[in-house]
Specification:
The chain has 3 helices and 10 strands; from the N terminus they run αββββββββββαα. Strand 1 (about 20-30) and strand 2 (about 30-40) form a beta hairpin. The strands form 2 sheets. It has an 8-stranded antiparallel sheet with strand order 1-2-3-4-5-6-7-10, with helices on one face. Strands 8-9 form a two-stranded antiparallel ribbon. It has 2 domains: about 1-145; about 150-183, no CATH class. It has about 180 residues and is an alpha+beta fold. The longest helix has 16 residues, at about 160-175.
Length: about 180
């Protein structure tokens, strides 16, 4: 559905657009999320909302963020807060993809007690910082255009004492001819 909407909205021929990327492995406050992007458009939706969100109307496929993604990994757009019996309250957020994490920040709606009305926007609200983790680094590289390479292996000096001792013995054995089975 998102692909069709994106194609229609852009007024472009489907074949000329890059394929939609869906990543179902983000974690956010106990929920599993999906990060979608196509070109410079990105969104984050709930795949498995945590317990308690259903009463606020959050279900599989509910949109949490929609906006633009730049080639350097910046995200700018609209996030939503949810309250039982109320329409989602939108607010502006911006942030970035950083390795396997996404962080979005913005002044979040603070509702009037017992009401759906928004009293003010609050930078100290629990919703003012949205953290997402476990994004596959290869996917992040594709979304941002930044190169990715696997982490370098740990040096023996950074490893456990047992590993360091194993490496030391292997080096000694190799230098004395024992590594090739010679005695």
């Amino acid at each position: 559905m998102f692909r069709s909407i994106a194609f229609a909205a852009a007024g472009l021929v489907a074949a000329s657009l890059p394929a939609l990327a869906d990543v179902d492995n983000l974690a956010h406050n106990g929920s599993r999320m999906r990060f979608d992007w196509m070109g410079d458009h990105a969104r984050i939706v709930y795949i498995e909302p945590r317990a308690g969100l259903a009463s606020a109307g959050v279900e599989r496929g509910t949109l949490l963020f929609e906006g633009a993604i730049t080639r350097d990994g910046r995200l700018d757009g609209t996030a939503f807060t949810f309250k039982k019996g109320c329409a989602p309250a939108p607010y502006r957020v911006s942030g970035a993809i950083d390795g396997s994490d996404i962080r979005l920040e913005g002044a979040a709606p603070k509702r009037v007690s017992g009401s759906c009305a928004v009293a003010r926007l609050d930078r100290t609200s629990a919703h003012s910082m949205l953290d997402f983790s476990d994004l596959d680094p290869e996917i992040a590289a594709k979304a941002t255009g930044r190169p990715w390479s696997p982490p370098a292996p740990a040096l023996a000096s950074d490893a456990s004492p047992l590993w360091a001792e194993t490496v030391r013995r292997a080096v000694e054995a190799a230098s004395s001819g024992h590594a090739s089975g010679q005695e």
